[in-house]
Automatic annotation (TrEMBL):
It comes from the Bacteria. Belongs to the bacilliredoxin family. It comes from Amoebophilus asiaticus (strain 5a2). It holds the Pfam family Disulph_isomer. This is BrxA/BrxB family bacilliredoxin. NCBIfam families: YphP_YqiW (TIGR04191).
């Protein structure tokens, strides 16, 4: 029986992990096909997805007015109702934000880290919905406020926030 050098195995595992991290294969937690379908529920309604930190920084540096930010989610217990609620609120309300953006945790991690700077003091939760006016959060719906609620209730609350701030 051949003796295995544990140092070589450790080095091979380390190099494999480093390669996956730098090529972003290891960070993507979900199948791309599934993410594309879920993300399309928002992008088909005009949302622009943030994919990196530069996009986030440029958006908030160069855009004034109101931005509706949806932190998307794979979670079956809250994600679908959050997306449907947002889309319904926008479709049935004459008051609309100037900009629609979305981000996907577990996929767009670099952008997620940057978004955290713009939603303080609120903790990042998935899903969540923020209305940001001229750089300040004026409305925020956290995951615990979404989970277990029907999309119609979520839409009503978002519509109220849009009426008040847009």
């Amino acid at each position: 029986m051949r003796k295995i050098d544990k140092t070589l195995i450790f080095a091979a595992v380390y190099i494999t992990i480093e390669n996956k991290l730098t090529t972003n294969h290891f960070l993507n937690m979900y199948p791309e096909e599934l993410v594309a379908i879920i993300e399309a529920e928002l992008t088909d309604s005009g949302f622009i997805p943030f994919k990196n930190a530069k996009q986030v920084t440029e958006h908030f540096a160069n855009h004034t007015g109101t931005t509706l930010l949806v932190v998307n989610s794979m979670c079956g217990c809250a994600g679908p109702d959050a997306r449907m609620g947002v889309v319904e609120a926008l479709a049935t309300n004459p008051y609309t934000p100037d900009h629609l953006v979305t981000i996907f945790p577990g996929i767009d991690e670099e952008a997620m880290e940057q978004v955290q700077n713009y939603i303080k003091p609120y903790p990042l939760s998935s899903p969540s919905i923020a209305l940001i006016k001229d750089g300040a959060v004026v409305y925020f719906m956290e995951r615990h406020q979404i989970k277990g609620r029907p999309s119609e209730e979520i839409a009503e609350e978002i519509a109220d926030a849009l009426i008040e701030h847009c």
